[in-house]
Design goal:
3-stranded antiparallel beta sheet; homodimer; Arc Repressor Mutant, subunit A; DNA-binding; two-stranded antiparallel ribbon
Chain lengths: 224, 224
DNA sequence: GCAATCTACTCGCAATGCGAGTAAAACTCC
DNA sequence: GGAGTTTTACTCGCATTGCGAGTAGATTGC
């Protein structure tokens, strides 16, 4: 019996909202889940098959023109597995930000390289934030899922897509933390890149006061 | 020729400070690099060997009692490779926080499970923060690396460990962002867990105003 | 003196990433 | 209307990485 990983539950959770084809599943992951739990595309298709062997989903091959596609649907035991996972202990947070790794070793190169990598990271974070802002705007838009919840509209589709307003409370939570985290990344690297531009070197003694200030501010932010 | 990954450079960067044995390298990763770029232990030893085949480090087998250990040292071309990497474009940030994934699918379970997983994530973040606070305290301590930079002491060891005060400016940068990010995680999940305790369900219509507020606040935080 | 922990790793399998490849359908532009 | 591009809808295989078990000498605490 293969093991379930967070990625497995990521797909299972998507299916909990509605049945989907394999391709739709990968699109959904690319669209939104990516920010929360990145998984490579090839692996997504493997995981879909795993869901079936675990008995958590069923597949039906349906025609699509001259070709076929696989439609997955969650099973009762799939829902139970999802609930069980949601009730279990999550693992430690895992942050992988190459820009931070480069900052950590910045003393092995110069301020130019450091500032460049910081700006690059800031702009990656900015691009991701822009996508997330798109979601927020959509959720708040007239006729959007929030309006549906407030009963101002009976429609269940918006911008040509089927909406799941009952998921909005959960989705908004994930959206909120992710936004906050990326804001920290963008702001820190933007601000610090500008600072680094004035550094004579990455190891200069002249930087000592600013490093002291950084550390002391860090310490003072600490709640007792 | 095997490929270098950020993990490869993570080890190479450690060696840039001083020669180290394989075991010391894994300890350093466990101690500090883990927060910035997590790598499994088994893989660390593989990467050490890769550094040698790439010509970026040398190994010497040295005796340790009746046994031996491998001491790695960076080469000139290793330093060059590190500098070249530091001057290249970093990849996109990658956040993997299971607690966020669970929040995203919280509508498939109840408020109890959600609050529990949130508290668990908050306490993981808290534990990580406590370790980072230890570093800050150490750096600021009397006789610590900051004192060394300010020339108040000539020593180069502190708490029995060799210090690298010239790295402090870079290290403090990485420490600072990481702290800020984990603070966001801890605070968000602590605060929101308390809020979720009062939720009647994860899909209740009653939550609509609070979800609207969350989204609108998110939107208003956005800089123009 | 002996049990537990630390040093110092190796090994193998399973999980995952990554990029290429396939091929039909749909859409776009002149 | 036909040619070229993009989208749909995936499969495949190798390389990378994670994870847990295993080994065995050294050291420390009681």
């Amino acid at each position: 019996m293969p093991d379930a990983s967070p990625a497995t539950y990521g797909l299972l959770g998507m299916l909990a909202a509605r049945p989907m084809t394999g391709y739709e599943l990968t699109q959904q992951v690319r669209r939104s889940l990516r920010f929360v739990w990145p998984v490579s595309e090839g692996h997504l298709y493997r995981e879909q098959k795993k869901l079936v062997t675990l008995g958590w989903a069923t597949v039906k091959t349906e025609p699509a023109g001259r070709r076929t596609r696989q439609r997955y649907a969650i099973t009762r035991s799939g829902r139970a597995a999802l609930r069980a996972w949601l009730a279990s202990e999550p693992e430690e947070p895992h942050l992988q930000i190459e820009g931070v790794l480069r900052a950590f070793y910045a003393d092995s190169s110069g301020p130019e390289a450091l500032a460049a990598s910081m700006r690059s990271t800031a702009s990656s974070a900015g691009a991701m934030l822009a996508e997330l802002h798109g979601f927020v705007d959509e959720y708040l838009a007239e006729g959007g899922p929030l309006d549906m919840l407030e009963d101002r509209t009976k429609a269940r589709t918006f911008a040509g897509r089927e909406m799941h307003p009952e998921r909005l409370h959960s989705v908004a939570l994930a959206l909120d933390v992710t936004t906050q985290l990326l804001e920290v990344v963008e702001e820190f690297f933007t601000r610090t890149a500008a600072e680094v531009d004035n550094w004579p070197s990455t190891t200069d003694a002249e930087l000592t006061p600013s490093t002291r200030a950084r550390l002391e501010q860090n310490q003072s932010r600490r709640p007792s």
